[in-house]
Amino acid sequence: MIRVCALSELDDRKPFAASVDDVDVVLVRDGERVHALADLCSHAAVSLSEGEVSRKGIECWLHGSCFDLQTGKPSSPPASEPVDVYAVDLRDGDVYVDVTVTTN
């Protein structure tokens, strides 16, 4: 697990781009929970951190594919492949991510 940022640096339901061991990830805070996904749309290979977060998940800004924050699975076309979801640990007000452990 690598420390990425303080929990207080994350705005609720706003994407936050980070690099963990040379892997681009997008963090999304949902209350006291934080999700970490690969920061690359599986359809168009663009950054998901530039998109918006809705009730359905994180939406790709280019074509509108939406990915579930917990599973990485697309809930709307045109994407048909999931994105990786990484293990997150919150410790002492900090966010840690392990890009070697995917949860999907």
TrEMBL record:
It comes from the Bacteria. GO terms for molecular function: 2 iron, 2 sulfur cluster binding; dioxygenase activity; metal ion binding; monooxygenase activity; oxidoreductase activity, acting on paired donors, with incorporation or reduction of molecular oxygen. Keywords: 2Fe-2S, Dioxygenase, Iron, Iron-sulfur, Metal-binding, Oxidoreductase. The keyword Nucleotide-binding does not apply. Residues 2-97 form the Rieske domain. Pfam families: Rieske (PF00355). InterPro entries: Rieske_2Fe-2S (IPR017941), Rieske_2Fe-2S_sf (IPR036922). This is 3-phenylpropionate/trans-cinnamate dioxygenase ferredoxin subunit.
